[in-house]
Write a structure and sequence with these properties.
The structure is a single chain. With 339 residues, the chain is α/β, with parallel strands linked by helices. The protein has one domain: Alpha-Beta Barrel (TIM Barrel), CATH 3.20.20. Helix content is 41%, strand content 10%. 48% of the residues are buried.
Length: 339
């Protein structure tokens, strides 16, 4: 009997599955696994780990953060990807058409390489603005100009789609205008809504192109007292109704300090789900993930959510060996002409 794909995305401790993790994978409220650098040693090991996960729960989403630059979990034997700001720099120094080609190439290469190893999606692209304020965003952002972020992100997304990978825009409505790192604190942005709209512009323009969106752990007090990822106003009203976004909403990691003020892990999980998140990430805290799964099970949290099937028609798997010996070499050569 095929098991449900629940709303929780958890992580793993190391290079192989422990007996406890094998049991975790059987939980119907688990919907996916996110991989980190600690889960990767080399290609054979990673393929073995992914096959072991698939053998227990073939329908689970397997995810990673493979943006490029300082946020690239898989490095050895993978193409070193430049940060997304490289696309914006290329635009400033060259021309729009060349920058669009680079954006498409990076989106395609990143997605194809990740998919070829058996991973379903990388949470990309970053749509925050590079305003020179947020260190945690910094060169992860494409550009400071929202219209240029939109133009170049559109071609990056098209590259991802050409490789058969869904695109996830982050961190709605924009993390580039706050200094604090939401991994370590809860940022506050005291601007009015009309001032925030500039940051939100890429999300608004791409709402019908994106398959998923990840909200930020930021409070905008003039809009709502809750962080965006726990705010029905932001997610159900602004994102769903105003921007007409109908894709999947992934919470940002509930283990981040920006989420801590909501309560314990089960409280954070229920608040995010009730606000409108479809999937919730619980990373780097196994006890927290288990507590969330237990609470959802105890309360018989509904597993039937049409959007949880949004990624059920992922493109067929790609053969890693044929990809790296044929297409990847050509892609890497083209990339070397840009950066």
């Amino acid at each position: 009997m095929k098991m449900h794909r629940g709303p929780v995305i958890a992580d793993l401790g190391g290079l192989t599955l422990t007996s406890e993790e094998k049991h975790l994978l059987l939980d119907p409220y688990l919907g996916g696994i996110i991989l980190f650098s600690r889960n990767y040693q080399n290609i054979p090991q990673l393929k073995s780990l992914i096959l072991a996960i698939r053998a227990i729960r073939p329908e689970l989403l397997i995810c990673v953060d493979q943006e490029g630059g300082r946020v690239q979990r898989l490095i050895q034997e993978f193409t070193p990807l430049p940060p997304l700001h490289t696309i914006g720099q290329y635009l400033d120094s060259m021309n729009l058409d060349s920058a669009k080609k680079l954006a498409n190439l990076l989106g395609y290469l990143m997605a194809k390489e990740v998919r070829a190893i058996g991973i379903d999606l990388s949470f990309a692209p970053v749509l925050d603005l590079n305003r020179g304020i947020s260190d945690i965003i910094g060169n992860r952002a494409i550009h400071r100009d929202p219209s240029k972020v939109y133009e170049l992100a559109l071609h990056y997304i098209q590259g991802m789609h050409q490789a058969g990978m869904p695109a996830t825009g982050k961190h709605f409505p924009g993390h580039g205008s706050v200094q604090l790192d939401s991994h370590l604190a809860l940022p506050m942005d005291n601007r009015d809504f009309d001032e925030i709209e500039e940051d939100m512009f890429p999300f608004a323009k791409l709402a019908l192109k994106l398959d998923a969106i990840m909200p930020a752990h930021i409070v905008f007090p003039k809009i709502d007292a809750n962080p965006v990822g726990f705010s029905a106003l932001w997610l159900k009203q602004i994102l769903r109704k105003t921007l007409q976004f109908d894709g999947v909403i992934f919470s940002d990691d509930l283990s981040m300090e920006g989420a801590a003020g909501i309560g314990d892990y089960p409280t954070r999980a229920k608040a995010a789900l009730e606000a409108g998140c479809d999937f919730i990430l619980v990373c780097n805290h196994p006890e927290g993930a288990r507590a969330v799964l237990a609470e959802l099970s105890q309360e018989a949290y509904p597993l039937v959510n049409p959007r949880l099937n949004h990624f059920s028609s992922l493109a067929p798997e790609i053969n890693w060996e044929s990809f790296i010996t044929q297409e990847r070499l050509s892609l890497q050569k083209t990339l070397s002409e840009f950066v």
